[in-house]
Amino acid sequence: MSENSEPTGEASTGLPLEGIVVVSLEQAVAAPIATRHLADLGARVIKIERVGEGDFARNYDAAVHGLASHFVWLNRGKESICIDLKAAEGVATVRRLVDEADVVLQNFAPGAAARLGLGADELRRARPELIVVNMTGYGTDGPLRERKAYDMLVQAETGLCSITGTPETATKTGIPTSDIAAGMYALTAIQAALFRRERTGAGATIDVSMFDATVEWLGHPMYLQMYQDTQVQRMGLSHASIAPYDAYPTVDGKILIGVQNDRGWRALVTEVFGRPDLAEHPKFATNILRVQHRAETDAVVAEHTRRFGTAELDKRLAAAGVPAARLNEMKDLIEHPQLEERNRWREVATEAGPVRAVLPPVTFTDVEMRMGAVPALGQHTDAVLADLGLTDDQIAGLRAAGIVQ
Question: Which of UniProt's keywords are assigned here (predicted)?
Answer without folding.
Answer: Transferase
